[in-house]
Structures are given as structure tokens and as C-alpha cells.
Amino acid sequence: MLDKLGLMSTFPPTDAQRVDLSNSHKYPQMRWSLQHVAELHPSHNIRHGNAPVAVLPVTNKPIGSFVFEDDKGKKTNIDEWFNSSYSDAIVVLHKGHIVYERYDNQMKPWSPHLLFSMTKSFTGLMAAQLAQDGKIDPNALVTQYVPELAGSAWGDMKVRDVMDMTGAVRFREVYTDPTTEIFGYSWASGMLPLPPGYLGKTNIYDFLKTLQKEGEHGAGFVYRTVHSEVLGWIVSRATNKHWADLMSENIWQKLGMEEDAYVMVDSVGTPLQGAGLNATARDLARFGEMLRRGGEFNGKRIFDKAVLDDTFVKGGDREKFKAGGMPFRAGYSYRNQWWMLHNADGAYEAAGIHGQMIHVNPAAEMVVVKLASHPVAGAGFTHAMTLRAWAALAQAVRQ
Amino acid sequence: MLDKLGLMSTFPPTDAQRVDLSNSHKYPQMRWSLQHVAELHPSHNIRHGNAPVAVLPVTNKPIGSFVFEDDKGKKTNIDEWFNSSYSDAIVVLHKGHIVYERYDNQMKPWSPHLLFSMTKSFTGLMAAQLAQDGKIDPNALVTQYVPELAGSAWGDMKVRDVMDMTGAVRFREVYTDPTTEIFGYSWASGMLPLPPGYLGKTNIYDFLKTLQKEGEHGAGFVYRTVHSEVLGWIVSRATNKHWADLMSENIWQKLGMEEDAYVMVDSVGTPLQGAGLNATARDLARFGEMLRRGGEFNGKRIFDKAVLDDTFVKGGDREKFKAGGMPFRAGYSYRNQWWMLHNADGAYEAAGIHGQMIHVNPAAEMVVVKLASHPVAGAGFTHAMTLRAWAALAQAVRQ
């Protein structure tokens, strides 16, 4: 697909094939940019170090040809789903073995891919572990860690409401209205180039201070990327370390990763802790497998089992989740920045716009990583089909 | 030193400790930014891959305490020189063994450091090897590879005059006069942020096309970074590959490097082939050791011996070199973007502003990598002392 598009393939790229900050978030340029974020934005490396790679054994199974019924009642198979969903990569692990791995759109096993909101799930679990270790108190006010937020929506909010996105903050996302807060976030974080004469905030922390309360904290789940940025700020204050260094020391150097990861940063080095992580499909599979095994992998403990059980088994508040306005995720809950399906298999997932997913199915002993550059951002458009595919994969790996 | 400065050490950094594009090129902020270029600028990764690291054996020698006379006639030693020259790292190899290795200013063995014009030496040797392979003709006109340069200084210039910087191009570097070409280069390449209302070129290739001839090609050596950018353009046209991918496939993946390297890119992904490479001290030592061994290292041939002999043994034209206005490098020549000392030991070096150096001394079987963030950019200020230190090191490793 990208070969056909020819984006950024000549020296210099032709005007038609050029991807830069003016179009990198648009389709089809996005098909290139999601694998090349560091070439467009400042970024902070997440080093994996020189420890031996934790080899994932390969036991190929005929997963791609597995037939299932799509959400329209039509017969399809896994390979067709891979193709039709603008996939860049998929890795399926069963009992820790790679049973299916495919790449497209010029992606390679060593290509880091933008994960968007899957980033939140790393921030959330690190915060939950710090809470377990007594370094963050979920019942404390946010201002105990970040006094600068006193005049903002977080001024009277507890850390728990940040972790589970039940804090009430006015943050409108109307992509046709540049006065809504999503634009302020995109400019301050460097995701979008500054418009001429811009006088607003130029880093994430300064922007967060401007956001105001709307509603009651704890009343219901409302999905807001800015909560993840605040949570990351709390994590850095509690540890006195940069998020990228924590990711490297606590996760990337321990799991026997194959490649460095990296995170986008704003103009003063603040990581986009809610949207900016980039990593390879295989390294994400290692992370998912560590979760499936209860927090241990490669001979190392990464998270306490109690932290994972509190997140994935207990899960979040399913009643409060209904307030979030995501009917396509009916029955789900959200806790520590993870999505729990509350299905018979006890599945849970991390998700990012344009098709980024880690899906863990404990009953099927399966981990799926799927990375894509789908032209439609939100999961609402594809999620019914995604759920069909998860069910098909859980059958396919067991056959 | 950096610990004392406290640059970028809190979340967010205080105003006094903040490093961003407005001050990252200034002292003391530069002491931080030379190890954090990717956090400030878009960059293109140079992957080292998963091959085993080529371990450099360690045989410590009392190099640091070796006493010598400095350029003012005063007694000093290697450790004092390290400290007084704002060093971030030094690695000294003797017969392939690390005999002395030191870091300061928060640099670690795994920290990539900006190399400035040492970048040129990589571009130059890759071009020389392509010439050896018959893929670039040094006697051809530049326009055979880059017809876009027809209306510029390079329109009637031969490739050889680009490789050895004997082409005549008007490129003034007056740091107090923004009408001189160095500003256009800094803006187009993204090294400096664009001033308000900027209407000039926004990428390197477009900027190169604007430069005009001044004088006669081949008459004398005149050091111009833009020649290296043109040479990199020729290399990419001859190979149809991005400079960073060539660096990864031909050098970084073969030498058993410990860490990925990376290169700064402009707004459309063009690498700064004359100034933007970042790498660790140890990986640069591996590169230098490969050169000292005649092009082989880690069981792999990287460059033909004929290419290295043509560069380092034959060297450039010492008469033409005199036109370059570098009396502190008396007796030197420049060929394929390397500096040859033409001393009794047959030494040669790569060099970048603010104290970046690979120095190879074949007679002493020694390779020195020294990286620094010296407040003075040009080598003229420090070179007399540097030459003293090279001589002292050549004695020290042999004792």
C-alpha cells in the first residue's frame, strides 16, 4: 500500500509524496507518519539496553485462513480482516509462542509504531504499582503531588479519579472548532504546528493548568487524555524521574526487548504520557505476555500480581463506565487506564486511535498486538468487527 | 558540572534550567543539549540491530595521571586536560583494548552525543567507497546525480571538488549578520527556529539550490558544510537510500555497535549529512578501530583498504589546504571529508565544533574518541593543546 503511495521515497520527496507537520495527521500521509514519528517530532528514547533478547518461540498455526462471520453476517477470515482494517502489524501469541505474525505498509519487525492512547495504559500501570509501593496515595488530592494544578479542574480532585478517568474536567473535542480544548492540547504538546500569531500555551504542563472543572468528580467515567498527562506528571513528581527513564529502567530493560522504544516530547521535554509512545509489535507482545503471566517475564518481576489483579480481575466500575458515551464498548469498565471487557474469558486491552491494540485473553492464553493506520480515528467505527475478530482468534489459537 | 547546573532536572524545568530551541545552541544550555538532540529536533534512527555486541576488551593503564607540557609550557596531565576542555567523554583504545575511558557532565557509555562535523567524515567515506564500487564517478559533474543543482554553485562543479571541499561556493559565516548564508542553512535545516514572518527556504535541498559560485573550482580548499550536504544528496541519489539507512546497513549493523545512533533531519526528512550525527563514544571507538585495522572489524569488511589508503595514506593536497585559512592545522590536508595530520605517526582525524574528535594514530596503534561541550565552537582556540594531548597519549599508551 505505502509502496504504491510512494510517500517520502525519493530525495527530496515530490510535493505529492511529501509528509510534514502540515499533513502528517491526515490520510493517506498518516500511513507513513505513524511509523516515523521521531522524524517529524522531538522524542525521548526509551533504551532497552544490552541484555539478551527474550526470544519468542515461533509455532506457526493456520490463523490467517481461519474463517469467521463478520459484524455484517458475511464470511471472512483473519487475513482479510488484517487487510481491510489498514493493518501495519499483527502478532498473536498463544501460550507465549508466536502463532501468527504479519506486516504490511512497509512495517518491519523492528519498526516502532505510534501507539496513541495505548500510552495511557503504561502510565496507568506504572502509577498503580507506585500506589502499591506506597509512593502514590490514590486517595490523596492531586495537588499533594502537583501544587501547580490548584487553580484547575484537578484542584479538588483525588488521584484515583485521575487514574480511572472519573474526574470532571471541561475538555471538548470538536475537530471543526479550534476554540475547543483539544486544539489547545494539540498545539501545546507539539502534535500540531502552531498557527501564525499563536499566543497560547507552548507546553503540556502550562496547558493543563488552564483546564477547568465541569461536573462532579467521581460521578462517572469520561475519557480524557489530559487525565493521563496529569497522572504522568504525578508519577514523575513521585519518583523524580522522567517517564521515559522509568519506562526504560522498569520495563524495557527488563523484558528482553528487541528494540528501543521512544516517546514524543513537547517543546520543553515533557513526554506525551497519554498519546506519544512508539514501540514495535513484538516488544508490545512481550509486554502483553508479561501481563498474562501475572507480572513476570524473562525471569523478572515487572508488576506485583496484586496490581494486575486489581486492574484486570477486579476492574473498574461498570455502572460509572456507562456515563462515558461508548455504546460500542457495552459492558466494559476502565481502571488504571486499561479497558476490561468483563467477558467470559476475562479479557482486557489497551487501545489507541487509528487501530492500535494490545488484547489479552487469559482463558485462551492469548495475547494479540495489532497496529494500524486506519483512516478513521475512533474505535466506534471498527469495534464491532474487532470483537468478532477477537472471538475468532481465541478459537483459532486453540485448534 | 551539569548536576550543578541542574538543567532540565525537574518536572517541568524551572525557567532558569529550561533548555529549548531558543537557547539550546548557547552556553551553558549547550552542555545539556549536545546529549539530547532528539529531544529538541526531529531525528532519523540508525539501527544497530540485534547482532552480538563486539566487546572492546578493557586493559586499564594509568593514562589519566600521565604528565605532559601544555601549549603554554606548563605541566599538566591527561585528567586535567579532560576536565579543562569541557569533556563529556573520552575513550582511548590501544591495540583494540580500552586503556582509558571517562565520562562527565551526566554522559554515560550509552549516551549518544552530537558530533557536528564529524558527520561529514561518515558521508565522505561512504561516498569514497561508492566511488571505488563504480557507483559514483568523482570526475563527473555533480549535476549528473543532482540535476536540480544546475543553477547553483555546483552546476559546473565535479564530484571530487565536493568530496575534498575544493569547490568554490559563496557561503559566509558571520554569526552577527543574519544575511550571511550560515543563517539560511541553520533555518532551512531546522537547527535554529524560524524567525517570525520567515519567508526563506524550509529544507536543506531547497536552500542548496540558492547558493552561488564564488571563485574557481579546484583552486583551493575552503571548508564548507554545504559541500557535505550536497555529497550526501549524491550518495542518496546513487543508492536510492536514505543516508540513515545506509549508515545502519553498511556500518552500524556490521560493527557490533552497542547502541543505535541517529541523525537530525529537516522538515521533510533530509538528514543533516554535514552536522547531524549522534552516537556514543564507544561505538565511535569501534568505528575508529575498524579504520585503524584497514577496514575490517568484528569479522566484517566495512571499507576497502584501497579507499582508506587513498584517504588516510595518500591524503589530500597540502598546497591547496593552505587556502583554507586554518593556520592552527598547519601541514594538514583534507580528503574525503577527513583531516590528515601528515605527521611521523601517519595520524588522521574527524572533527566537529565544540570539541568532537576521533583521532587515529596508526604508529601508536591508538584510537582516541573525545566528545565535549566546549563553550568555544571553533577548534582554533584549543587545537594547539589538543596536538599536545595527542602526542602525550601516544606516549602514554606505549609505556
Q: Can you walk through the features of this model?
A:
Two copies of one chain form a homodimer. The first copy, chain A, has helices spanning 2-5, 29-33, 78-84, 118-132, 159-163, 181-189, 204-208, 225-239, 243-252, 281-292, 305-314, 318-321, 383-398; strands spanning 43-46, 67-69, 75-77, 87-94, 97-103, 113-114, 261-264, 277-279, 296-297, 300-301, 333-335, 338-340, 348-352, 356-361, 366-372. The first copy, chain A, is an alpha+beta fold. Chain A has a domain at 1-32. In chain A, strands 5-4-15-14-13-12-11 form a seven-stranded antiparallel sheet, sandwiched between helices. The first copy, chain A, has a four-stranded antiparallel sheet with strand order 1-7-8-6. A two-stranded antiparallel ribbon of chain A has the order 2-3. In chain A, strand 12 and strand 13 (348-352) form a beta hairpin. The radius of gyration of chain A is 20 Å and the shape is globular. Chain A starts with a helix and ends with a helix.
**% residues in beta strands of chain A:** 15-25%
**What is Rg of chain A?**
20 Å
Please tally the helical runs of chain A, counting DSSP H or I stretches of 4 or more residues: 13
Going by helix content, strand content and strand pairing, the class of chain A is: alpha+beta
Oligomer: homodimer
Q: Biggest interface and its residues per chain? A: A-B, 38 and 38 residues
Major β-sheet annotation of chain A: 7 strands, antiparallel
Question: How many beta strands in the DSSP annotation of chain A?
Answer: 15
Strand order of the largest sheet of chain A: 5-4-15-14-13-12-11
Calculate the terminal CA-CA distance of chain A, rounded to whole Å. 32 Å
